[in-house]
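INFO  loader      accepted 1 record
INFO  loader      residues=382
INFO  predictor   begin
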Amino acid sequence: MLPFSFSNSARLVLSVVCLLAGVVAVSGESLFIDIERSRIERVIEMGYRLDPNVELEIKRLGEEFPDSPVPGLLEAGWLYWMQDYRGFDRELKERFEERSEAALDKAEAYLKEHRKDPDAQFAVGMAELMQVIYFVDHNRWWPAFWKSRSSLKIMKRLVAEYPDYHDAKMPLGMANCYMAKTPGYLKPLKFLMRFSGDMELGMAYMREARDEGLFTRVDAGYYLAGILYELEGDRQAAHDEFAKLVERFPSNLKFQSTLAELERGLGKQAAARDRALLVMSSARVAEFPAIEGETLTSLLWSSLGSQSFELTIEISRKAEAFVERYAFLDPEGAWAEYARAEAFLGLGERGEALALWGSISEDRNKMAADAARKRIGEVTGG
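INFO  predictor   done
INFO  writer      dumping tokens
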């Protein structure tokens, strides 16, 4: 059960965006690198809906268009998304590394034969960017640095030559915003890049991509919400951006879970609780352990905040069972015990609460143990 943070928004820039790699045409023509854009759009829609048949559709595209880099980019993007949402699947991570490299090779080969094609250039840039974000996720700063230089160079050139290539503006917008107001986890990359970033320009690029991009509108809105939350501290604006995504794609469990946490951050505890319950009621939530863990966290605290104490006790036990499936998360289980103790106190069971708080050890989770000792002192007057 991992504490929710929007700080992963920069690292997850391709969680859905990479599905879109190579699918934006400047001219508005019906084809993008040999494939009808309507077919690519269909794959994108399937991805947002968490359609389990999306991989099969990508495979079909690959069989029909063996020379196009688009199917490979879509496949790599999907694998990145899935290894993130499933969270703890080493095999998926290895598959992403392998297939993203193959996608980049094909994109570069295609570009050699179509040097002046802006879409071919964009495909290479996005293939590299997928790898950049993955490397940042795993603190592999040197490969992230070299790949990011190459990718951003391509995007800058596209925007300079084709001002209406709005989809290339989204990665540039992300780079400018996160390098202008750099969170701690990205400081190593900023140090290597020697890039200060321009917040105003970055925000403008993000809004242009959201409002005028052809295929990155949803993604620009997703990451704009992250920027508003993490870098600007505007929780309400972030919530409003995300609510639009949920309205369009209600079956996307990640979107729903994130909106629940944003509602909790705004003090809308009952709304957050009900939305998190909706996610947990999905028959598919267990397919995505990372989403399940985030939702359990949100539900644990929103049920407590809405004084649904019986529910808090129930969810705390589900959270502990979740943690047992992933041993490295064991320290987080201490917070489930802490919340359960609060719920017992809310139900008038003072002795149960004090016993639970007293059982939380520093060896397991020092922060939780310190918080528990403080509550014992507050309750007993000690």
